[in-house]
Write a structure and sequence with these properties.
The chain folds into 2 domains: 39 residues, no CATH class; 106 residues, no CATH class. 88% of the residues lie in helices and 0% in strands. It has 155 residues and is mainly α. It is built from 6 helices and no strands.
Amino acid sequence: MNHEDDLARRGEARLAEHARECDECAAAPLAFETIARSLAAYAVPLDVAELSRRVARHLQPELARLASVWFWRRLGRVIFAALLPLPLILLLDAYVLGVFYAWASTVLPAALATYLVISYAASQLLLFAATYAAIPLLLARDAWFRGLTTAEALP
């Protein structure tokens, strides 16, 4: 016996009890079995796939807004975490460049040593810029792949 049958039996028992106690229902009895069969035969057609598509379509703007908020918060946290050690890295790099310049200026002419230090510093600056510019792109790519995975899961 399932839950629906149990509910139907309890409903029928309550209806029969009411019919016994109510003078109006006792005077004009209804065919409870006919009513019960009619109600049991009535079924609402439900297309679950269409309902899911409609709900997803209506939720899409809110999901996009929440994804955007999540992305910008995550981007802020990642950039903050990436920028936190940057001053120490730059100080260490400046120290290494100073030591390298001191050593190179004893072995090479000063102009060539300066050229090597500036070239190295420029290449480091380019690498830092490329690294920090790639953070939002990598986060966006990750969010895009997650969005595809979620969208493919919908019916």
